[in-house]
Structure formats: structure tokens, C-alpha cells
Amino acid sequence: MAMGDATFSQDDACIWVEKYTEMLDPARKSARPPHMAYQRDRARVIHSASFRRLQSKTQIFGLNESDFFRTRLTHSMEVAQIGSGIVEHLALREEADHYQAWLPSPYLIEAICLAHDLGHPPFGHGGEVALNYMMRHHGGFEGNAQTLRILAYLGEYTPKNGLDLTRRATLGVMKYPAIYEDLVALDTGYQACLNLPPVTDFKTWNMKPWHPPKCLYQEEASVVDWLLSPFSEQDRAVFLAIKPPIDPTSKQRVRTQFKAFDTTIMELADDIAYGIHDLEDAVAMKMVTRDLWQVEVMAHPHFIAHRLWDNTMTDRLFSGSSKQRKHAVSKMVGIMVEEIFVIERDQFAHPLLRYQACLPTAQAQVLELLKQFVFKNVITIPEVKGMEYKGQLIVMTLFEALEANADRLLPANTLAKFNQAESERARKRVICDYIAGMTNNYASKLYEKFFLPKQGSVFDRI
């Protein structure tokens, strides 16, 4: 089916700017044009408390290391800038006529990119894994799932329906369209972990087996149904299909296979920001040397096979000059963005699922090489892992204490939600939401207030 087919004309654009609250109450619908609806989406994300808190949540380094190095807030802003650059580039490609009508507007892609990390808990992936362990029998915890929960329930713009963004913006943020329990049912390795005795000493807990399935929560299932309702039954079935690992004995989690068109643009922007901008931080902090870069990147078979840049890039990156380093990083980003193209997946009829943004093999392999370089030489070194370990202890200890002493330790508004919850799962989710919304600094101060004798005061606000 040709993608210019009138079956999928933009005459039904109102479907994609609909909000969940408008589905619940059609009288709330407005005749606002799409560009204004997506502009409002972006504004709601920027002005939300969850977005502001990203300034005090780590990307990689501790917040006290330097004001220069990236937080989740600056990372999200960079992802939005790269995302809008990708859209602009795709619009200018020769074959753009085929997909032009379905490219997201700058407002839309920026809203999606700015929102993509709203659900990240304090202390990065260490905090994510710690919360997943505490919620392992009660729906799990995953950063992107928490993002959808903020958009659909926790955000402050509506009493019960969160930030209440448009359908297309919310769909674009949703990276893994599968419910936690559905993934767990197919993951024998994770099931074995669930059968282990509970850990009584968090200091001896090993987080490796507890990386969460890439999922959504059962609590948001009705929102997922609403998001996917414009698609055919066949498209929904394929989109929601779960792919088991090729090797059942591997530790790889089962996961979904497909993402919406806008999501693929956002993910490419995210990967580029992670692989290149986080590399910039590592070089600036002198955590990686030129010799190491030369051996593990420039001399790597994947890079030798493609040669996306010459030694001038290395000279600029390790020159010691922030201007030269920034020039190199900007050039690297451009090398990636300028080669992104759009493919069509024959499994789908609808353009928003059929179209996918991709990197060519050369750029994809080199970007993956950069990501692995950062992962190996920055994220997994003992100095960073030690901070991650401390963060997980704070998160798990706070969870245990707040749940056991809710009436004494929770702030009034959170305690009201806790007391209104009708099940153990719902009560745990209240605690989980509360901790996930904390910044690194707030979680640390709360831990000190509760557990260090000489810290804290009755005048400290909770």
C-alpha cells in the first residue's frame, strides 16, 4: 500500500491531537489546530514539576562534581535539539514526499524529546533497578513506564489524568508497549529471580539480575488502549507482539519489537546525545585519555571499516580547549544526523507505525562503538559504580522505612493517597511514585534526616 493513499489522509488529524480527558468527556474537545495543540504539549512538559526536577537528577556524574557536566535536564534539552534537527533533515531529503505529511512538527518532536526522561528516578539506572526490586511482585518499575504514568496520571495539569498531552505526543514517548506482567510471564530467567528469598540486608544485594523488563504498568493499560485505538486490529497485534530472546539461557530480557515513527526519531536523538555528548563530559573530566580513544575507537575494526572522521577530530577532542572539543562534538553529531533516513516496515498499514527513522549501517556501528566506549570506561568504573551503589541503598532503605512508617514519615498529600489505596500493590505504588519523583539531593537529605543522628531538623520540609 502506498503511503500517499487517501486511506490515511491527514483529514483525521483531530484523532492525533485528542487528549485522554477529551475522550472521557467529549464536551472538552476544542478546535485548536495541530501545531497549537503540540505547542501546548511542549509548554506543559517544560513547565511541569517533573521536568524541573531533572536538573537535580544525574545523567552519569554526581551533581556535586561540577556544574558543567550534564544532568537529565540538560540531556533532555540536547535530545530535543537533535530531534528537531533530525526532523528538519528528513524534510529535506529527496524521498521526503513519501512521508512528509507524517513527519512530526518541531513542536511535537520537541515535546516528545523533552518528556522522554520525566520518569527517571533519583540516582539514574541504579535507582531504577532498586525501585524495580522493591516493586518486583507488584507491577515493577521502569523509567519509561514511569514517564507514561506522569503523562497519564501523576502530572499536575489535571486532577486525575496527569499532563494530559495529545495522543500523538504520548504515543511518541511510549518506547515499550508491553505490560510488566505480560513480559514476566514469558521471561523464565526473571521468574527464577522472583522466586528467590527476599533480601534482608540491602548492603549485600546484587542489582544485576533485577534490571527491569522494558515495560509499562498495568495501571496505565486503559491509556495504552486509547493511544492505539486509531490503528487497525492487525496493526495493534503486531505492534504489541513480544519477542522472546533468541537464546533462552541468556540473561537478556524479553521485549517488544516495534516503536512508532516519532519514537524512532526520539530514540535516535537520545542515542546520539548519549554516545557523543556524554563522551564530551568524559573527555572534559579526563576520565578517558587520547591513547585509550585511539586504541578502542579509532583502531577498532568497525571504525576502520567506515572512517567517519580523520585524526583532526581526535586532535580537537583532546586538545584541552573547550572550544575545540565543542567543535568536534558538534561535527560528530552532524555526521550522524545528516545520514538518517526513513524506511517502511511492511508489517504495518498505518504510516505512524510503518515509517521508521534509521541510521545507515556505518553510522549505526560507529555510534554503538561510542556508546560502548562510554559505558566501559565511564559508567562501569568503580568510582561511578560506587555512587550508583550508594544511591540504590538510599532508595531501598527509604522505600522500606516509608512503607513501614507511612503515618509518621510521609507528607500529608502522599499519606492521603496511601490511606486511600485499596490494596498492598496500590500502597506500594504510592511509595514508589513518591521516591521516583525525588531528586538526588532530596533523596539524600531525606535519608540523612531519618538515619543520621546529627542531621535533620523539625524545620526541614518533607
UniProtKB/TrEMBL annotation:
GO terms for molecular function: dGTPase activity. GO terms for biological process: dGTP catabolic process. CDD domains: HDc. Residues 72-275 form the HD domain. Pfam families: HD, HD_assoc. SMART domains: HDc (SM00471). This is Deoxyguanosinetriphosphate triphosphohydrolase-like protein. It comes from Thiomicrospira aerophila AL3. The lineage of its organism: Bacteria, Pseudomonadati, Pseudomonadota, Gammaproteobacteria, Thiotrichales.
